[in-house]
Amino acid sequence: MAEVVLRGFGWRHAGRRAWAIRGVDLRIRSGERVLLLGPSGAGKSTLLAALAGLLPEDSGESEGTVTVDGRDPHARESAGLLFQDPQTQLVMARSGDDVAFGLENRGVPAGEIWPRVSDALDRVGFPYPITRPTHALSGGEQQRLALAGVLALRPGLLLLDEPTANLDPAGGTLIREAIARAVGRDTTLILVEHRVEQALPLIDRVVVLAPGGGVAADGAPEVVFAGHGPALAEQGVWVPGYPLPRHRAVAGPGDALVRAQAVAVDRRLPPVRLEARAGEALAVTGPNGAGKSTLALVLGGLLAPTSGTVTAFDDPSPPHRWRAATLTRRIGSVFQAPEHQFVTSRVADELALGPRRLRRPAAEVSATVDELLARLRLTALAEANPYTLSGGEARRLSVATALATRPRLLVLDEPTFGQDRGTWIDLVALLARLRDEGHGILAVTHDEAFADSLADRVHDLTPALPHAHRRPDRRPA
Ligand SMILES: Nc1ncnc2c1ncn2[C@@H]1O[C@H](COP(=O)(O)OP(=O)(O)O)[C@@H](O)[C@H]1O
Ligand SMILES: [Mg+2]
């Protein structure tokens, strides 16, 4: 059990002009379960890092005080922190070893380690033997394992930072079930989770960080959402029941940009036939294991299909055979976890990379960079290191990077994963605008709201429904 007290707390990361979080006064009593909300960049992750003792003095400037059970969080490790990306948290090849690793690190006596490992795995409902290779687990299972690793440490304060943001709906359910069964009343819980509706059963209090500093709302969920619903939705919080904008195409689709015929990405999956056209947004949906991400790589020209043919841009050779420069001029790909793919240490350099490789003149490169920075609201972060961006900022940067070489076709893998309501709305509006300017948009997605809001056509990879169907409500005749 742990009590958290913040008084006038603020933190400014080294090298940043703006405070990541400021003026926070908050008391969380032992055993409370708090849902921490706030728009992308409001400082939620920074607050959790402070509580976990992960903000060393020399990494920034602080204001006010933060204590866990009356003590400086750096002084004693009483918090366990789970991040959104399971892959970056697993370090060992075998599942049990991964949980044991954290215990060994904290110097738990050898005789206690394995009983604690199996207890933690039971609590999260881990369904495999401890020898199960971690790479053979689904994303949701990996995250369950990572949660077991945190619970094995028996933290009095459990901090979960968007634990389902990188998972498909089934994986998200696995984690929420694991949290519900594993977290007892002897633990204080702070959960950051954009999908409010799904988080409500796990929590009894909602705290909303205001983007400008301080706490915008605090209380029981029904009170917070009844009293502040519209204002919170405006600020980017997924308030249950608030409608989302819809973007209909301004014109019918143009030429086919890419065509897949009898394409298989895996011998066990049925072959796919589809076409993505200019001026059209196509959503490719389907369950886990339907090969969606692999298909995105194939259509993006980054991988050869196992069988079948892909043709694009009237080129006789398939996209995966094109020279890199040709590919980036025609097709831009945005991956599922863009936060691992940045290759430079400055946001502006990241955007300049593609145009520079195409040997575009310096003046044109900097004009492109400036335009994209402004368009994706990243201008203030031009000098920042991409790896320090918040999740929503990183996603916008990855879309901007794909656009920098002005490709006509954009292939996106789960573009809306982990976005708050505000960045979600912005991203969908941006993609709608690109479509209406004549770009082809092809997005592999689990997000039904995304398909409803943007897609002109949905191609469902569910085996029983193998063909694309035009949604009758999309384009009234
Ligand atoms: N390690 C870091 N170095 C510099 N700036 C950072 C770092 N981590 C976060 N920031 C910045 O602090 C602000 C708050 O970020 P974050 O706490 O990640 O917000 P949230 O989790 O609410 O999206 C953002 O502007 C982000 O770019
Ligand atoms: Mg965050």
Which secondary structure elements does this structure contain, and how are they paired or packed?
Elements: E1 4-13, E2 21-28, E3 33-37, H1 44-51, E4 60-68, E5 79-82, H2 86-89, H3 95-105, H4 110-124, H5 139-151, E6 157-161, H6 169-182, E7 188-192, H7 196-199, E8 205-209, E9 215-219, H8 221-234, E10 256-264, E11 272-277, E12 281-285, H9 292-299, E13 307-312, H10 324-330, E14 331-334, H11 347-357, H12 362-375, H13 391-403, E15 409-413, H14 421-436, E16 440-444, H15 448-454, E17 457-460, E18 469-470
Parallel strand pairs: 3-7, 3-8, 5-6, 6-7, 12-16, 12-17, 14-15, 15-16
Antiparallel strand pairs: 1-2, 1-4, 8-9, 10-11, 10-13, 17-18
Helix pairs in contact: 3-4, 3-5, 4-5, 5-6, 11-12, 11-13
Residues 13, 16, 20, 38, 40-46, 388-391, 393 line the site of adenosine-5'-diphosphate (ADP).
Mean pLDDT, as a whole number?
A: 90
The CATH top-level class label of the largest domain? Alpha Beta
Number of separate structural domains: 2
Q: Profile the largest sheet.
A: 6 strands, mixed
**Percent range for helical residues?**
25-40%
Q: What is the CA-atom radius of gyration, in angstroms?
A: 23 Å
Low-confidence stretches: 465-477
CATH homologous superfamily designation of the largest domain: P-loop containing nucleotide triphosphate hydrolases
Helix count, DSSP H or I runs of 4 or more residues: 15
Q: What CATH architecture of the largest domain would you give?
A: 3-Layer(aba) Sandwich
Q: Per the principal axes of the C-alpha atoms, what is the gross shape?
A: globular
What's the end-to-end separation, in Å?
Answer: 61 Å
The CATH topology of the largest domain is what?
Rossmann fold
Number of E-state strands: 18
Secondary-structure-derived class: alpha/beta
Strand content: 15-25%
Distinct small molecules bound, one entry per kind:
adenosine-5'-diphosphate, magnesium ion
